[in-house]
Write a structure and sequence with these properties.
55 residues, alpha+beta, three-stranded antiparallel sheet, globular
Length: 55
């Protein structure tokens, strides 16, 4: 799953005040998924969650 926006972005190396991304990472980990966040100030944000498919 890939979610992107063209908003203000943020510095990914700095801890934020919210629980949003830590919640996404926690839920993804419980599924065996990986999370990648690409963002920087002024460029928007892209969040990729890759999960194994169970057949």
């Amino acid at each position: 799953m890939v979610v992107s926006d063209n908003g203000v972005g943020f510095q990914t190396t700095e801890a934020g005040d919210g629980m949003g991304l830590s919640n996404v990472r926690s839920r993804a980990a419980s599924l065996g998924a990986t999370v990648q966040v690409d963002s920087s100030p002024g460029t928007g944000t892209t969040v990729c969650v890759e999960c194994p498919v169970v057949e």
